[in-house]
Amino acid sequence: xxxxxxxQLTRNASIEEVEAGGLAPYYTDHGLGVYPQxxxxxxxxxSVLAVKGDPIADLQEDLAAEQKARATYEKLIxxxxxYPDVVDPLKFLREREIVHFQRFGEALRGVQDKLxxxxxxxxxxxxxxxxxxDNTYTPNMTINIGMNKNNCGCGR
Length: 156
What we know:
Layout: H1 2-10, H2 15-20, H3 24-30, H4 55-79, H5 84-116, E1 129-131, E2 137-139
Antiparallel strand pairs: 1-2
C-alpha cells in the first residue's frame, strides 16, 4: 500500500518537481516506478527476514517486525499531516500492525504454554494405566514424577 501511495503521489510529477523533492538519484535508477528500498536507499533484501526455525525466536522476531512497521507508519503520518488522503491509509496500516502484534503475542503465549506442559510418555500395556473404552488412559494410582514445587525438575 505504501508503494501505491508513493506511485500516486509521484506519477504525474515533472522533472523539476522530482529534482526539487530530492528524488533525482532515485529517478535516475528507477524512474517513477516503485522500487522496494529503505529511506536510506538500501534496497530490500531477504537478509532482513530473520527466521531461526525455533517457534519462540521466530515469534519474537515477528513481534519486533510489527513494532518496527508501526513505528515507521507513525513517522510517515507525522511527515504527511497535511495530506489526509495519505494519512488515512497509513493509519489503517498502523492499526493493522497493532492487531498483528497482538495476534503474534497470543501465538507466543500459546507456544510457551504448550512447551511448559508436562509430557507423559507411556506404553498402553503399562499396568499402572487403565485403557478406557474410548482409547484414553486413566492412571490406576497416584504417580509422583519427582517434580519440585516449581515444576521445573531442576531440584532447586
